[in-house]
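thought: fold this chain, then report.
action: predict
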Amino acid sequence: MKVFLAVPVLVIAMNAGADCQSGLPAEVPSMPEGATATRLQIEQAQVDAQAYVDSVAAFLDCPRKEVSDMKHNFFVDSAFQTAKEYNETLIRFNQREESLASN
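observation:
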């Protein structure tokens, strides 16, 4: 399982596809509570967060789309916040797992 999402690399360095057919990014995924989530929920949260970040990167990297600065900044911030929320959820999950393992 990946520990941290590489948002800066994805948003800044990702190459745009030749077709640029991506629409607006999907809805921001909700994260489970790390202190009570199951491993399966954490793994699904990672998949959902990565898919959202990827959809934002694909949308913003399309050179044929004209995106206002405000919309661009909104989506970049949204991708960073989604990754941050996932990372915080994962940290709480790992802390709980370590606590249970030490008992």
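thought: worth noting. DSSP finds three helices and no strands in the chain.
final: tokens above.
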